[in-house]
Each structure stands twice: as C-alpha cells, then as structure tokens.
Amino acid sequence: MARAGQVGGTATAPRPTLPAPTSRGGQSTQTAPAAQETRQDEAAPRQVAVVTGAGSGIGRAVALALIAAGWTVVLAGRRAEALAETSRLAGPAGPDGPAIMTMPTDVTRPEQVDALFAAVQERFGQLDLLFNNAGTFGRAAPLEELEYDDWRAVVDVNLTGSFLCAQAAFRTMKAQDPQGGRIINNGSVSAHTPRPHSIAYTATKHAMTGLTKSLSLDGRPYHIACGQIDIGNAATEMTGRMQTGILQANGRTAVEPVMDATDVARTVVHMAALPLTANVQFATVMATNMPYIGRG
C-alpha cells in the first residue's frame, strides 16, 4: 500500500492545565493525558494522519480536509475542548462517519509527544502522515525589549515541539511494516522574509526549513518523505490583527489581505496524497495581494 504523508497548526492562547492522566491496565500513567475520544469506522481507508495544533486555525482546517478526503485523523493539541469541537465539526460518528481520535498533547513535553505516537501505534498500528503544525507567534516587541521567557516560549513550541513530533513520527515510520510515511512541516512566509518585531517567530521558521531539509535527507533510506508548506495570511485567530492593521516594514500600519484557511488545507491534502516516490519539497500558499513579494 502506498503511504501518504503530512505537517502543523497554530495555538496562541495561554497554556491551560491539561486533563489529568488516567490509569491503564492497573498501572498509573503519569506522563501524558490519555486519548479523550475515539471514533473509528472500520471500513475507512487505512491511511492515518496526526495533526498537531488541530484545535484551531490551520490545524483544524487541515484536519477537517483530511477527514473529508477519507483519512483516519488523530487530533492533537493542548486544549481538549477545542479538539472536541474540531471532532464535532467533522460530522456525526457512525458506520459511515469519520474516523477520528483526539488526544490532548503539549508538544513541548517529550513524554506527552511519546505518549501520543505510542497511542497512535497501539490504536491503528501505523502512521502515514504527520502534519507538524503546532506553533505560536509570541509577543510582538522590539528586539531590545524582548524578554528571555518570550523568546524561549516561541522556540519551545515552534522549534523544539516540531522536532519532538518529527522525531517520534520518524521513529514510528522507520519501524513499521511497510516502512515509510510523510511529514509535512508548517513553515511560514516568515521562513523567507521577516515582519517587524518578530525575531523569535522568524528565527524558528527559518530553523523549520533546516529541519525539513534534514528530515528529507535522513528519511530517504526509509521511504520517509518530508516537505514544507509556507503560509501567508490565512484567516485564523493568529492573523486577526492583519484585518485591523499591522505594522509594516516602512513603519506604517496597514490592513493586509487574507485568504481562507481551507485554501491551505487543500494544498496539504494534495501533498499528503502523493505516492512516497514523489514529494512537494516546498510550497508557498498566500493571499494574492499580501505584501510579501517586495516586502520591505
């Protein structure tokens, strides 16, 4: 069976307290929350995707698009209630309904990431796609005013979290039979060109490109493909201020055009549907008239 592959969403809300761990088999599980919901149509195609940051924005749009395309989708993110809403939006469960599992996960916690992918392996026996999407813009501030904690918070989610999820997915895809799968990383047009007062976000998105290239190279012997989608001005919670006015490189504030997040989701589904002998290494999807080409 040819496998497909995948990448990541954006969370900007403060970190909530995750649901308490549950006991399994008489042993107390102290590392991460258990899966909150499983909805499985046994007749669904055996293509399994994990989407991080699936509780909102691009992650939600991509998860819903993958489900509509017939994928079994594992929804991961910090907010259990937001994941449940994504699951609800996918439609009612039933014999012909979507195949979904939700699992609250903080991607900055190695033990929770490990628990997520262990649960996927235990429940489905394989992983075809990771959409490595969880991320945050962080506090917009002049460089000299950015606190260490502000910097660290963005690096922990956008870079370390992406690495941890990619590493766990890579291990799973390498070990499974048939071997292989796909990782799609959520980059940004900021992986190419920064905005003012965005040094932490921009640095992590540049680093995402290096992560993508290394994964693509290291995955070759194991039939693991890795690509990156760089997104500009999709209409999500994260880009709300672009529609009211955002600082430009010339020092002025201006409203910027946005596009629907479903336009991004369609591109991810296309990338994911390719056979593992083909790969979209980098793709840029952006609002046509956003100030990117010629920015600055």
Spell out the CATH superfamily: NAD(P)-binding Rossmann-like Domain
Separate helix tally: 6
CATH architecture: 3-Layer(aba) Sandwich
Question: How many β strands by DSSP?
Answer: 13
- Proportion of beta-strand residues: 15-25%
Low-confidence runs (pLDDT<50, min 5 residues)? 1-32, 41-45
Order of helices and strands: EEEEEHEHEHEHEHEEEHE
- The structural domain count equals 1
- CATH third-tier fold name: Rossmann fold
N-C termini distance: 47 Å
Q: Helix/strand-derived class?
A: alpha/beta
Radius of gyration: 18 Å
Q: Which key phrases capture this entry?
A:
9-stranded mixed sheet, single chain, globular, 6 helices, two-stranded antiparallel sheet, alpha/beta, Rossmann fold, 296 residues
